[in-house]
Amino acid sequence: MAFKIRLHKERIIMKLAEQIQQADWKKEKHVPVIECADEVKAGEIFEVKVSLGKEIAHPNTTEHHIRWISLYFRPEGERFTYQVGHYEFSAHGESAQGANEGPIYTHHEVRVSLKLGKSGTLFALSLCNIHGLWESSKEIKVV
Fold this sequence. Notes:
Oligomer: single chain
Largest sheet: 5 strands, mixed
């Protein structure tokens, strides 16, 4: 029975992994762009910026928008990934007067400060309400 449950969970995870799309952010507006230093000092705080549409603007309308960005870190040589944060964007111009008539639009960009004790890889995942899940990654060296 335990084997069947584990196999079922693995199939669900594989199905989710198949939904995550990757591309070059310079050519595809849905790919998260991770901007930070390539090398940081151990235990020192540094800033990471994650955005979308750096080269090709992504729409931010009631009908087509980025719902959220999540940032993760996987230390080099380790099996598990740690969530840095999950950031939701809730205002896309909707209002009682109709679509795109609202007074506020959130911008799909996140800045977070963190410190690392070990080299590894940052992963950003974003969700477009029309075009699904998109991922990018960036290696960080800790000295």
